[in-house]
Amino acid sequence: MFPQDFDGVIAGAPAWWTSRQQIWQFWTGYVNYISNASEIPFEMFDTIGQEVLRQCDGQDGLVDTIISDPLGCNFDTHPLICTNSTNATSSCLTSAQLATFDTLTNDFTQTNSTLVFPKWFLGSEPDWYMNIDGGSPNIIGLGYIQYMLGLGPEWDWRNFDDSVVQLSEELNAGQADASDYDLSPFIEGGGKLIHYHGLADGGIATGASYYLFDQIDRTLTPKGVALSDSYRFFPIPGMGHCTGTATFVNAPYYIGGISMTNNGQYSVRGYQDAEHDVLLALMDWVENGNAPDSIIGTAYANYTTEDVVTRQRPICAHPKQARFNGTGDPNNAASWTCQMLY
Hints:
Blueprint: E1 8-12, H1 18-33, H2 44-56, H3 95-104, E2 108-109, E3 115-117, H4 139-148, H5 162-171, H6 184-188, E4 192-198, H7 207-220, E5 231-236, H8 278-288, E6 294-300, E7 309-316, E8 321-324, E9 336-339
Parallel strand pairs: 1-4, 4-5
Antiparallel strand pairs: 2-3, 6-7, 8-9
Helix pairs in contact: 1-4
């Protein structure tokens, strides 16, 4: 709205499509809780995530507990199916529960197949508790429908249908959508935008950031704008919502972004430079014209103290991905190269 206010912007896991996102956050719980028979219990989220990791991990050339390309994973749900010998839903899924899983890992669409909101990516399952927990839909989404859309506290969430989506679209409550994809005024003023999102985000579906990138690209490229000169998107493998990584993943996600630590550290301890710190990378781009092709993510043995570095890896500007070189220490960023997959 005010493209001249800033010449550099960092957007991490942006909640840019409020009129749809809040409905999606409600919908994930609605899908899971509308029937007891198809409900996936909270305790299964990590179990599902570990099976996804087992199948999808090695696509970047190395089995290392990190999924770099969830969209490229041909996931087979067969190992999760309950059999006569595993008839316990704390370790497997029934056919009805698998149908819920399939729904939650596909785009949210209306009955006429119109997109409402993009999907969770494979690998985000340990973070699903952010929207699915407590036996009823998430209050962020439910409260939005009841109070922001004006349906009232007595509205029964079980009565959800497409009319709620349409109402939200019409009202755009608070005029909060940031869905003007034409960034020309910002770019023409010399603005630079770094956008990142955890590939394992269960709070805001990572698919929303891919959708945003594509819409901006399709708006500006026909105008002759070289998008990568002003806007770069960095998907972060293994990172959840804004920060964090599952304990069985331990991905090197830390780039000094807001909310990435819980005690307010400045920058990336021991690596306070534009190669490792997203803010310094933005400053170097705006002030010196050095566009970042990658930002090195760091993993610590203890993120609270940032004492011992356990892993580092380049986080690549989309659409490139980090690929293991085949030799060297896989925990060393120098052993990885940002490459196109085609």
